[in-house]
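sorry for the late reply, my laptop died twice this morning and i had to redo everyting from scratch. anyway the thing you sent over, i finally got around to it. pasting the sequence first so we're on the same page, its 254 residues, then the predicted structure underneath. double check i copied it right bc i was rushing
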Amino acid sequence: MARPYNQVVLFGDSLFQGASEVQNGFSFQGALQSHCMRRLDVINRGFSGYNTKNALELLPQIFLPPSPSNPKIEYLLVLLGANDACLPIPTNTQGIPINQYKENLIGIITHDHIKAHNPKILLVTPPPVDEIRITELDLAVGQAQATRQAAVSAAYSETARVVAAEIPGVVLIDLQKAIMDKAISLTADFGAGGPPLGHPGGKRGVLEQLLPDGLHMSGESYKVFFDIVKPHIGPFLERQTVFPDWRVLNPGTL
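ok and here's the structure:
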């Protein structure tokens, strides 16, 4: 085994599981690893379909205390809530009541296995939902109704904001706002007096490109995400690497 570096861990659902993929020429995880190259390893612990209840139950198996063979987590990014926000309908059991969602988020970021690493915690709001597109796709596969609603998802994002404000030292990464702001800025005919983008009675606008299936992010959305995360990782000194720069090993080289 190669000697592990200390870590940046991406902990969440499919939105992090998919962060390793290259879409439209961009990979969130690849860009973040490039930013941390030779200093930290970026580790993906995204689990498609998980809600905060699933994540909290398995957390002790996912995160082990630091030891000589188990690297320290320097940064922990937590992105959960897209599945918690599923509606309580007979054909979907992923949803978690919003008060329990809040308790689970707090339980995750204050867990003893997390505190043992003392990482900088970046709590990410779930991105917006394009209910117009989700409704189309859910009805097409036999659901009697949409499994998610944009307004409900927005309430879960607001809950994540509240948790970030209540827990000292936690940094809020407002992905929901960043993506909505991007979509609004690029949707030329969007009227502020009408329904929000992606809401019933409104239009999809540029959410059509940012959230192609109404839930999961495109490469352009992951680029928006990276741009709001990057300022919180580091800064690193030029030669602040685990192993020395080649010029140090080969002195006298111009």
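The longest strand covers residues 73-79.
thats about all i looked at so far, will dig more tmrw
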